[in-house]
Design brief:
By secondary structure, the protein is an alpha/beta fold. The protein contains 13 helices and twelve strands. Helix 10 links the parallel strand 9 and strand 10.
């Protein structure tokens, strides 16, 4: 009897083990098939959203099918960014795509352990998102939109557009660490051969931005260069209107300012940057470590000029500048 019981017990135990093994295997397989979830933190920029989502779909990830995109679109000059980053911080996400430095800083404050791709950041190293461009070494990667010389080039183009300028306002809304300082140093270096006097005006919120613009008018500056910054981009209509009102030749860091009626921009293809961001995201979802994916500068900057804006401030654009332009808008 004891021998029979032992054999039956053994067979029963073997069956239980097989069942447990099957359930465990099923559990692992189901876990591996879990739909990927990413956060997407951005301001109101439909063309950039479409560029990112379209490229992600081309790479095989379609929202609602094999990926879930938790998209949060923040309105300008509100507390949306803080609220949205706090929401995403609590979700079970594989990573977050942060549109720019303000979104990246807010997301890191809300959840410093969340892997992140940053679509555009002035100062990936100085802001602590990368140890080096070639090997970020942590949980962040993306595009750095502040290569050496880009600010001095904007200054040279401004002087070419308006040879008579002498006093140039540097309107800076660059957040974080290092980006403002790098642009200021680059501009000061470029100003020497151009014999320009520069004065920085820095703002971190809407009230300070309004005060900075009033200071530029009071100081009778006769040219303006807009530094990299989410705050200025969010309030581009106000800045462009100010420049037009005061007949101030201005060079900007984004094509969005030209679309708002601004004079000229020396800027990368931002839609291409968001397509590049989608490629980063796809690699990470397939198992790549963000810290192993090199940070890149934009491969090219484009000169866009709006002739109507020049007419409105009484500026005749030199042929040499128009010959350099990649895009001329009447």
């Amino acid at each position: 009897m004891q021998r029979k019981f032992g054999r039956r017990s053994f067979i029963r135990s073997l069956g239980n083990f097989a069942c447990s093994f099957s359930l465990a295997s099923t559990s692992v397989t189901w876990s591996q098939k879990r739909t990927k979830r990413i956060g997407f933190l951005i301001g109101d920029a439909p063309t950039l959203i479409s560029a990112f989502e379209g490229e992600l779909q081309r790479l095989g990830y379609e929202n609602g099918k094999n990926i879930i995109i938790e998209k949060r679109v923040s309105r300008s000059n509100t507390s949306d960014l803080s609220d949205h980053s706090a929401e995403l911080a609590k979700l079970d996400l594989d990573l977050v795509l942060a549109a720019s430095l303000p979104q990246a800083l807010a997301m890191r404050r809300a959840n410093p352990d969340m892997p992140m791709v940053i679509a555009t950041c002035p100062g990936m190293i100085s802001n602590g998102f990368a140890k080096s461009l070639a090997r970020p070494g942590g949980i962040y990667t993306g595009m750095d939109e502040l290569p050496p010389g880009v600010t001095s080039m904007r200054l040279r183009l401004l002087k070419m557009a308006a040879p008579g300028i002498k006093n140039v306002a540097l309107l800076s809304t660059t957040p974080g660490v290092g980006g403002h300082e790098a642009q200021l140093a680059d501009a000061q270096k470029g100003a020497v051969p151009l014999k320009l006097f520069l004065k920085p005006y820095r703002a971190t919120n809407l009230k300070e931005l309004e005060s900075a613009l009033a200071g530029i008018a009071d100081d009778r500056m006769n040219g303006m260069l807009s530094f990299q910054g989410g705050l200025s981009l969010a309030n581009r209509d106000m800045i462009v209107a100010f420049a037009e009102k005061h007949r101030l030749p201005t060079v900007y860091q984004s094509l969005f300012f030209i679309e708002a009626g601004g004079l000229m921009a020396w800027a990368p293809d931002q839609e291409k940057q968001y397509r590049s961001a989608a490629k980063y995201v796809a690699k990470i979802l397939k198992g790549a470590n963000p810290g192993d994916l090199p940070v890149h500068f934009p491969d090219r900057y484009f000169l866009s000029v709006k002739k109507g804006a020049a007419d409105r401030i009484g500026l005749k654009l030199p042929r040499a500048l128009l010959a350099k332009a990649d895009r001329i808008i009447d």
